[in-house]
Amino acid sequence: MSQFRFARVALMLAAIGLNAAPALMHGAHAQNKDAAPAAAPADAVRPELFKLLDPAQIKPLMDAKNYGEIQNRVTQAEAVPNRTPYEDYVLNRMKLTLATSTNNDAMATQALEAILATGKLPEADKANFTQALATYYYNAKNYPKAIELYKQIQALGKTTDAVNSAMIRSYYLSGDYATALKLQGPVLDAMEKAGKTPTQEDLRLYASAANKAKDDAAYLNGLEKLASFYPSDDFWTDLISRGIVRKPGFQEANVTNVLRLQFAAVKQLSPEGYTELAELALKDGFPTEAKKVVDAGFAAGVLGTGSGAAQHRQLRDRATKGAADDAKNIAAGEASAGKAKNGAGLVNLGWAYVTMDQFDKGIGFIEQGIAKGGLKSPDEAKLRLGMAYARAGKKDQAIQTFQTVKAGGGLSDTAKYWILLLNHPSGVTTVVK
Q1: CA torsion, points 411, 415, 421, 424, in degrees to nearest 10?
Q2: Are 376 and 358 in contact (CB under 8 A)?
Q3: What gap in Å lies between CA 313 and CA 304, rounded to an integer?
Q4: Comparing 25 with 267, which gets the higher pLDDT?
Q5: Among the listed residues 200, 142, 189, 195, the one whose alpha carbon sits nearest the alpha carbon of residue 166
Q6: What is residue 7's DSSP assignment?
């Protein structure tokens, strides 16, 4: 994924001091003029090299950004034969400084490889230098090499969150989605157990890896987390589609309740979403609900425009008239609903009152209807009761009620995602429409 990038390595090197000259270089001493080059101590720099790489001479050149002269000195030093491992170490530390100052990634990569190969790097610095080298390979899109180096850091016992994150992204970008998914899952679980919020980037990587690995369960899990922590219309729409409508066993009879959830969860439905929910609400005898849905569509600028504008206005007129009539006549239906053999009439009456924002009255009738029994779908009535509590702003009662919905066909899944919506800080405000 294109957003998985790291800052320029030069910045990282500067931050942890990797582009500084080695301290041992300051202790390098010129040998006796008569001494043979081959007799140079293991951790000393011969005079012919020292005069080229002397920090006291290099620093003013660096400050003046005279990189051409520094490169000339490096080139001359590379021409000196029979260099010792320590001399190679010092020379490549200087090359690394030059490379990071001039943004020469190829030179920096070569220098880091050479520094690590000399065996002269202090043990405490190995993990940092290896990480810098891995990052260069990562940015060069050589992900297998980057993974190899990240594993070396782990072997050193110096693993950090940054190293783990980079390695997971390397697996992903190399096309090994299954491994990226396998490694990312525990990271997300650990963050949640620690009470931390995963980053959206980490969740997107998890969901994308799951999708590419064709792991539907993991992808749905990723969507649920994204909708919970970073709610958006796209996340919620995909979640409702995959987690409810497209699951085996979904029953078309529950479409209305699914659309009610979507209406609460997203900021803006499609034109078809608004009109379908409004038509279903009218069909089921809830014109006030239909009016609110249509009004929301017009307010969002989704309805009333384009080729369907006339039909949208007709729908709004029907809903408006029906809502006005319902407001006048609803009380007359209370007696007959109470005398019915089953509680269906009471549940419907209660939901009608809820759509009119008479929450306490509506909740009371729905509870009476559930208690009376004889319902074709008791769990659908419980779902309605949960939605009524949610609209009334009674989050705890809503969640407790949703938790009792166990029936299939999309009902328990819809209840599950109502709970997810309510448990997110934005959920409490979005459900009241």
Answers
A1: -150
A2: no
A3: 6
A4: 267
A5: 142
A6: -
Nearest CA among 263, 315, 256, 304 for reference residue 280: 256
- d(CA 192, CA 33) in angstroms, rounded, equals 66
- DSSP assignment, residue 82? S
For residues 150 and 166, what is the distance between their CA atoms, to the nearest angstrom? 8
- Alpha-carbon distance of 429 to 11, in angstroms, equals 43
In this predicted structure, what is the pLDDT of residue 41?
54
Q: What's the rounded Cα separation, in Å, for the pair 351 and 353?
A: 5
Confidence band, pLDDT 50/70/90 cuts, at residue 22: low
Spell out the long-range contacts of 15-20 with Cβ–Cβ below 8 A and sequence spacing 24 or more: 16/128, 18/96, 18/100, 18/125, 18/128, 18/129, 18/132, 19/96, 19/97, 19/100, 19/101, 20/97
> What is the sign of the dihedral through the CA atoms of 20, 83, 67 and 135?
negative
For the residues 231-251, what does the mean pLDDT come to?
A: 96
* 329 has pLDDT over 90: yes
pTM above 0.85, yes or no: no
The 10 Å CB-count burial string (b at 16+, else e) for 76-86 is: ebeeeeebbeb
What distance, in Å, lies between the first and last C-alpha atoms of the chain? 37
Structure tokens of 196?
């931390």
Q: Which amino acid is at 358?
A: Q
Using one digit for the tens of pLDDT, what is the confidence trace for 44-63? 899 999 999 998 999 999 99
Q: Is the pLDDT reported for residue 413 higher than 90?
A: yes
